[in-house]
Automatic annotation (TrEMBL):
GO terms for molecular function: DNA binding; DNA-binding transcription factor activity. It holds the Pfam family GntR. This is Transcriptional regulator, GntR family. InterPro entries: GntR_C (IPR011711), TF_FadR/GntR_C (IPR008920), Tscrpt_reg_HTH_GntR (IPR000524), WH-like_DNA-bd_sf (IPR036388), WH_DNA-bd_sf (IPR036390). It comes from the Bacteria. It comes from Mycolicibacterium brisbanense. Residues 13-81 form the HTH gntR-type domain.
Length: 271
């Protein structure tokens, strides 16, 4: 039995995905706004020098992601943001490439705060001892490495990877597979906005202190303490990220979405 490699089909698939990503970015960024007419397949084919088949596949992909409304016999239009399927790869990629508009960043960070605090509470009661030991070991390792990095440049990629691993382990410890997947998807979406490259060593150490405090509360199965420390950590992280990752104009659009203390809450380091 042999496999038939259809090079043309592969190339066609790549073409429609590439064009769909371009148009998705225009929608997510607001360059194409709600209600705007979306070019038909024929015009898409002309603009991007592709076939009409590819043009139709582009519209199908955008429709499947909830980015456009397609009605038979009528022109397709840009769908309202409330209809976007934010967990679809096409939408996530577009948002990531566009670095997230201010109000959308606020929406996602609100979701992150809700789901991660819920996951932390569940983890404190549902996770196995082995899972809690693993979470504590991750936090302790990050903490110790940060303390030893006085004369070393910050490895930002490693910091992001370790942060994802720590919070992911807590989500998995919740015992809820859907919640764990949601936490992972939301955090992946927000990575491009993280201001980790603007944190100094003292702030990195503050983050890892917070991780260690959360991990110890989880290991003690202290639900109230774990929830409180995670909320404090997220409040500071979210405020710091929004303040540093967004422009002043974008901050104005989300300012009334956040309590002022969310931007300043920071537990002093305990040596």
């Amino acid at each position: 039995m042999s496999i038939s490699w259809d090079d043309e089909a592969i190339e066609q698939e790549r073409l429609h995905e590439r064009v769909a990503r371009r148009m998705a970015r225009d929608i997510v960024s607001g360059r194409l706004q709600e209600g705007d007419i979306v070019p038909p397949a024929e015009l898409i084919a002309q603009k991007f020098a592709v076939s009409r088949t590819v043009g139709r596949e582009v519209l199908q992909a955008l429709s499947a992601a909830g980015l456009i409304d397609v009605k038979h016999g009528r022109k397709s239009t840009v769908a309202p943001a409330k209809e976007w399927r934010f967990l679809e790869d096409l939408v996530q990629q577009a948002i990531s490439r566009e670095q997230l508009a201010g109000s959308l960043a606020a929406d996602l960070y609100e979701v992150r705060r809700l789901v991660e605090i819920a996951a932390t509470e569940m983890c404190a009661t549902r996770a196995s001892d082995e899972q809690l030991d693993h979470i504590l070991s991750l936090a302790q390792r990050m903490h110790d490495e940060a303390e030893d990095d006085e004369d070393e440049p910050l490895d930002l990629r490693r910091r992001v990877t370790e942060d994802l691993e720590f919070h992911g382990a807590i989500a998995e410890g919740s015992g809820n597979l859907v919640l764990a997947r949601l936490v992972a998807d939301v955090r992946r979406e927000l990575v491009p906005t993280w201001a980790v490259d603007q944190l100094d060593l003292s702030e990195v150490r503050d983050v890892h202190d917070a991780h260690l405090t959360i991990a110890k509360a989880l290991r003690d199965r202290d639900v109230a303490a774990a929830r409180s420390e995670m909320a404090r950590h997220l409040d500071w992280s979210i405020g710091t990220t929004l303040r540093r990752a967004l422009s002043e104009e974008q901050l104005e659009t989300v300012d009334d979405r956040w309590r002022p203390d969310w931007r300043t809450t920071k537990k002093p380091r305990q040596r």
